[in-house]
């Protein structure tokens, strides 16, 4: 193997030693912060002190969860000086992704910002969390430097950085890169390319690729090593990028194909960025035609460098050389010094690129890379070589490269497979002109699955468990089957997937045919099936919405001409979570709901406006982001809803007919992700009552006792996958209320467990409705504990929504009984010490018991009951209301008579389904 010369010293020491040579030159610039090379060693020493204070020792892993910031290089150099190892993840990671990263890396300490720490408190519960401000010098001012720190056992084969690969085989893996790996890679690239580039450079570059990715972070470290000034962007924006290039006379930028595509979409960039001389493009290939179009926008560029690399080998193995004069556009370049390559021919005829070098890692944190017996790394990429230039023509690994991010299909597939009724799934990348690639899923569903409901469930699951870059923006296709390899494993490729037929139209035609299916009165009241998980769904299927009407209920209706401040006063006075909205212009027709969610949105708006009251912004058109706090209360409800509509966030009123099945109602609640739905009179369109998850579960609990025993009721919710058991959103008593409300408003949860900071023992629950009560004090600059004190002193929810819990190993039926018995929206599942382990909501329970197993029944007309004299559609208003009141009274009577039963009692009747239904007239 040809050897690339590199010094036998620790990589971070080279950077710190060279820093003293560059003196007062700016090293790092971020917004209004500037760090010089002269200041760098002292700041690093202070951060070593901080790491020691936090209990970090040699060999420990430190995780950074921040956007691009000056903190990244400081934490890296401090960790390396101490003999610790740094890793990084996106600050936009979901709680599940954070939890996975912590488990995979074994990180001991997490550095992050206030927002991430508050929103992901439960996922971060088992590690030390240090919240850092934006200003580095303010944070480090009081920290003492350690003058002499000797870590004698560190060698160039000690681990230095642990970035996450993007899951070439499976979910993302934590790569353990050594000083030797960094030295070999860096000096190979210096000798081949960067020494020549830097000789012609103004030594200023712009960094906007994510620092938690290898390519973005290595480029930053090279600049520190060589004395270049790096201007840092936290987030990429093309106009801001060009402004910064011009402001600082940047001559080198590092991009990915999706950013190149943004430039191509913008067009007319001639004359912008006159100082720009070098563009480096990696991540995935850029076609020859696109290269030419990009360079025509920046004719001043002298060097357009493309490369090929992997996280497992630090950064790059192939690079186009200087002086190539664009003859090999589209190639990833020549092999770097210190690398050996060979093309391995598989039985399929595909030629996989194999690489060998001192730059290649030897270990994942939990496993080893795919090396052959001679130490060559299997890259998983199909390549060809011509005249010493390499071309990547396909991927044996199906890694998706989107906007410079690398997305693991397997990770997405594993999330989709958690959805009930999914038989198989394959995720591939589809080409996209703007983004490079987009994830697309091909899904095989079990028989008789409601496709519309599945898509709603899929959308919710993806949004809850995966970050934005991993969403299925390439689409979802329902297919009959997936291609298999000879061993029987799913082996979809892009070519095979492109031949699949979308069977959506087949399912729609099947559903349409099913709608005409009816049952004779002589048929069984409930059709039997081998899948007894459908029992509760069938119970709702044969019962109509009016049969769950409460004997007494309150509906509040507001005219949309009412002023907002009066509407919220009315909400407080009525102690209700919501009011229906009528439109007098359409004869009083109901067309919306005003809820506590709107209340929270307005309160946060007013609070933030007050915080920025000194800013005077010119307003041309009313917009939610521009309404002053003194104006918003004087808007009418209609004006407020128009603003929400303009934002694209206004939801249409969802309702259900009184004669529809309760199964329909449950499915509509799930599809629209709402907690309540008006039940509408068949004749005049007026609202009869509000049907909620609570009411449906009580109906199931009361009449479900008469069903044959179901095996799954004995299992725990955790075993069944009911509820949230990872990435739980929690708050602490000292969490600021505005942060708590922000989570409730923007993170898709309606209640937050309040837990002790050290033990995570659940002490209370803060729900959206509690925010209504705190409005009486007219202040949000308080803690959750202070808000809870008001709640316990007689707020509108004094006796409701308090924390109710079950043990994490108790049965599902016990959880159902506790939900009904305490009349709450959610349960906390706790361990023996009272620490939170999971959250089980009403919607989780109803989706599992009814929606998921029984949604296909909606396509079949329910049977008429033997004992029903009239169908609701044949009755006049007086008859209908008499029946409603009678049924409601019977429901309440049976409910009350059952309340003394043990909450752990399981359904015990040996008879099936037809004899013990609710009373009817």
Notes on the structure:
The protein has 29 helices and 36 strands. It has a nine-stranded mixed β-sheet with strand order 2-1-10-9-11-12-13-14-15, sandwiched between helices. Strands 4-3-5-6 form a four-stranded parallel β-sheet, sandwiched between helices. One of its GO terms (cellular component) is peroxisome.
Keywords:
921 residues, alpha/beta, Rossmann fold, GMP Synthetase, Chain A, domain 3, CBS-domain, 29 helices, disordered C terminus
Gyration radius (Cα, Å) is 31 Å
CATH class of the domain at 11-24 and 38-154: Alpha Beta
Rounded mean pLDDT is 80
Query: Strand fraction band?
Result: 15-25%
Largest sheet: 9 strands, mixed
Structural class designation: alpha/beta
Task: Describe this structure in a few short sentences.
The protein contains 29 helices and 36 strands. The protein has 921 residues and is α/β, with parallel strands linked by helices.
